[in-house]
Amino acid sequence: MSKQEMIVRHKLFDRLCHWTIVVVGLVTFLTGFSFFYPSFQWLGGIVGTPQLAKVLHPFFGIAMCLLLGLLLIRYYHHNKWDKYDWPWMKAVVWVLLQKEENIPPVGHYNPGQKMLFRAFVIFVIAFIVTGVIMWQPYFAPMFEASTVNWATLIHAACAILMLIAIVVHFWMATWIEGSITGMLYGKVSKAWARKHHPAMLDDFKEEEK
Amino acid sequence: MAEQDIIRRSGTTDITPASQARVGGVKKVAKLFDATKCNGCKACQVACSEWNDLREEVGEFSGSYQNPPSLSPECWTLMKYNEIEDAGKLRWQFTHSACMHCADPACLKACSTAGAIIQRANGTVDFDSDKCIGCGYCASACPFDIPKISAKDNKAYKCTLCSDRTAVGLEPSCVKTCTTGALRYGTREDMLFYAEKRVEELKARGYKNAGLYNPEGVGGTAMMMIFHDINDPESYYMPKDPQVPMATEIRQDWLKPLGTAGLIATAAFALMHRITVGRNIVEEDQPGYIDAAAEKEEDSK
């Protein structure tokens, strides 16, 4: 690897943002998990007591959503659907089976990542809207009980779906070796880019000019 | 104190239920509110605040004797006043408004915390403030809009049916103080028997639609009401067909098992995939998808 030329994939600000979201999001998810599964209330113990978990969850949640929103805005231009995406999507089974000769090239992000991006946009909006509606004792009393109840259901459903999305995110990040160092230190090797995001190199060629 | 009269507790799976050893010797109780006998004196409301040591702030007059305007963390029993126009005449209808103590309580089903809401062997539903975290799920699930969350301490409050009195054989304080006999307390069986007789009597006196409000949608309630017109409970500010709300049922009965299965399935699939497909490592000299000549050219730059 040492001889390989390295290229920047994630800027410092985005990396700091990403790992802050990981920490804040971990607290948000563990406390939220404790409300959805009463038997796992001890997971909310990450912030002390169940009562503290209830008080702090919305604040951590807001922080998570705002930072995630910021990161989504910064990565928006990488996530537009383009000409590479359909052919890659059709070959997604080969991607999972690691039959690289059958995988068409993709750009900075592949369609799977772009779908994750879109899902996160929906989740951030849903969490903020439903979260405010169900926020006791500040905002919930302003709404009809049935509105709050539906908000609770949507909030929980989005949380479960997002958790599944995060499991996939974690799975892919740990599988495609080099991704995590890329997100930690910002750089990936050119060989890595060629293997996983070949069209990303075109962007660099243009930038170099 | 081991509370062995708790037969159902919130946030607890059926695999590990609350104590079930008792064989049913504890009789179900009920409070019966006879709206046809109530004169709106508010003695029940005051007795409730006296016994439970609650003092809701004195509000402002807004054209009704109803004060405070709704139940609150400091007001667990409220006398509601409804002005009805009947054949050109104005008539008052009074509702003794407090927890209905449902046999199938939506609050208990919705609760986020193990044991914060319990159902006793006698059928009453109680909150354990010590465990409550103030999420408000009970308040949004209750079809009668009863539990209220206090902004002072982030806890849910409602009528306990004076569980501290009934536990030692006393009647609830509202019943004790009722000036007209509109409130009664006893075994559920006795209250049903009394209600039947009373409804018959009302019918004989010309109230053809008189009836007992004991809504089936929530499995019946341990507070029952006798109305002049059972077909119009809304005129007493009571819902016509209260149910455990659909959103609560979906969350607890569908989202929870399906979501859990989805999570476990995804994690299991990911793990199997990692083990079977193996590592995905970039080889140092891997040419990737750019042909060798182009690569050489690029590298020489």
From TrEMBL, chain B:
Localization (cell): Cell membrane
Coiled-coil residue windows: none
Reading the lineage from the top rank, the first entry is: Bacteria
Residues where [4Fe-4S] cluster 2 binds: C48, C159, C162, C174
Q: Which UniProt keywords apply?
A: 4Fe-4S, Cell membrane, Electron transport, Iron, Iron-sulfur, Membrane, Metal-binding, Repeat, Transmembrane, Transport
**Keyword Iron in record:** yes
Instruction: List the PROSITE patterns.
Output: 4FE4S_FER_1, 4FE4S_FER_2
Gene3D superfamilies associated with the record: 3.30.70.20, Single helix bin
Q: Which PANTHER family match?
A: FORMATE DEHYDROGENASE, NITRATE-INDUCIBLE, IRON-SULFUR SUBUNIT
One GO biological process from the UniProt record? formate oxidation
Please provide, in alphabetical order, the Gene Ontology terms of the cellular component aspect for this entry.
Answer: plasma membrane
Looking at the record, the residues that make up the 4Fe-4S ferredoxin-type domain are: 29-59, 123-152
Residue positions annotated to bind [4Fe-4S] cluster 3 are C99, C102, C107, C142
Q: Which cofactor does it need?
A: [4Fe-4S] cluster
Question: What exactly does this protein do?
Answer: The beta chain is an electron transfer unit containing 4 cysteine clusters involved in the formation of iron-sulfur centers.
Species source reads Shewanella fodinae
Q: Identify this protein by name.
A: Formate dehydrogenase iron-sulfur subunit
* Database matches in InterPro entries: 4Fe4S_Fe-S-bd, 4Fe4S_Fe_S_CS, FDH_Electron_Transfer_Unit, Formate_DH_bsu_Proteobacteria, Formate_DH_C_sf, Formate_DH_Fe-S_su, Formate_DH_TM
